[in-house]
Input
Amino acid sequence: MHANGNLALGVLGHVDHGKTALVRALTGIETDRLPEERERGLSIVAGYSHMPFSDGYVDLIDVPGHSAFIRAMIGGASGLDGAVLVVGANEGIQPQTREHLDVATLLGLHCGIVALNKCDLVDAPTLAKRQMELDELLNGTFLQNALIVPVSAITGEGIDTLRDLIGGLPRRTLQPPTEAFRLPIDRVFSKPGFGTVVTGTVHTGVASVGDAVMIAPGGKQGTIRGIQVHNAAAKSVQQGKRAAINLRGVDADDVERGMAIVQPQAVSSSRRIDASIAVLPGADAALKNGAALRLLVGTAETQVKLRLLDCDEIAPGKQGLAQLRCDREVTSARGMRFILRQNSPAETVGGGIVIEPHALRLRRFDQDSIERLHR
Output
């Protein structure tokens, strides 16, 4: 029996492979909440649901599968523990199957299961072929030892098995928080009689009703008026949990997706970040010094210029040290993972880990600076 604790799983995969239908079959919750999503049968923003077990809840985040909404996918996947990778047995591995797996690996997800959905649409030889293709794809990733479960969200085949396997995944053990509270904001709205409400997944720390908080970037301060977790009022919320937080003293116009709620003075925002960068093994070309890229960190997105500190380029499958010069202030923290995407063609090329979230300008090939960053 694993320890009592939290688990947040992203439901990943290509468009039309049945992620939303699978979440509905597992939880009874409809994650497509926008009218245009229901009209088009296409997820545009991440959808949220949960599954109760005897030792706590597992949160399921249904991320958009269409390539046009990859930014929403990355924002939804940030701060997760693991994944349910959904692959349609009728179509097999598709471009967004690969990109979602790349993103999840770069974000440091560490556990999961593969759901081979729509198994009712194929014969046994096709199903066996899909499983072999997945074994090859997953080799060397965090899902290389994951179970592959044939399921059908329509007929219900394999759903109970998948639910039991999700319940058996190792949880993040609940421990006293040692880091400052930080929740990247993925949604903001105003509720009559309550005021400003923001939602997101807590990356670090704990927050309670009555706590003073700050919006970053910007520095606007307020207090927590109320907290909801799994649609029920809660006194506090901590790392790994999704929450809706009602703020007092903060107008909805002061907040937008991509900002974060943080403990006042404990988290800083800046336009320059020191980081360790990894380029995907399947990238088309090396990342060169001076490259213009899109940075996605937490739920924020901005244009950055890459300044390589210990090399002139980073080849596919290799790593290096860099400074990211951002077009606008970004709220990050040491150890936080991020994604880098090309502007054209728009595709994920790599990612990395924040070493110094509030960096001073460094000279390239400065040995003292390089050794300090390695330490």
About this structure: The longest strand covers residues 319-331. Confidence is low (pLDDT under 50) at residues 40-44. DSSP finds seven helices and 25 strands in the chain.
